[in-house]
User: Fold Transcriptional regulator, RpiR family from hydrothermal vent metagenome.
Amino acid sequence: MGADQSVLKITTLAERLKVNPSTVTRLARNLGYSGYTEFRNTLLSETLSPVTAFYTRQAQHALHGNDSRLYDGVKQLAVENTKNIKYFVDSLDCEEFDQTVKLLANAPRVKTYAIRQFLSMAMFLNYGLGMIRSDVGMLDAPGLGTAEGLAGMSEGDALAVFSCSPYTKQVIQVCKAAHEVGIKTVVITDRASSPLVEFASHTILVPHQTSFLSNSLTAFAFCVESLINGTATFLGDTAKTALQRRDKMIHTLDIETS
Assistant:
């Protein structure tokens, strides 16, 4: 349920359950909660083992697999990632996705941010958006610092951040700081109970449960591809012109070969 986007808003949950939002509110209060938000947080809460052991636990399947049947692990990961992508598509809040794409297309400036494993996703989104629009970059590139990066942004600019459980504190702090100064934040994370959601202008939830020895990025990469393609579709001729300029410069500099 953690990656089910419908529970983020009472209206979308009510629509999914085919009841009025007031019915959900009454249920929450009858159960002793002050309102839907408190009820939702309890609904999404999970009993977690200490985060210090996360990677050791997560790697157990890979560490104890049958080394004479390595292909079985390949097939298992393929099945798991296919299910994750299907669940992402089936549970995606289309309105939230559309609003996210419009922000990525229209914001005066877009920055991306993540560290550790998710740095690759921030770089991927940065690269893709940079193909189709101007004023896109990494928040702290090339390692000049997040404070300087945020100080160079203005109210109405967009910051896309990535993290999933166990969440990196620094990413939460940066997202919070950006949100508090009026920067529009796009949070790409795994659960509606993620601490990043509190500071999000828009949230995209991505499931990632697999037997991979760390957090799987396959569904996150699919999400990023979807956001880039969606932004290109929304920009239309503007994106086409940007891609044509790119092709011309690649040809001028003789960068690629068949």
Summary: The chain has two domains: 1-45, 87-252. The chain has a mean pLDDT of 87.
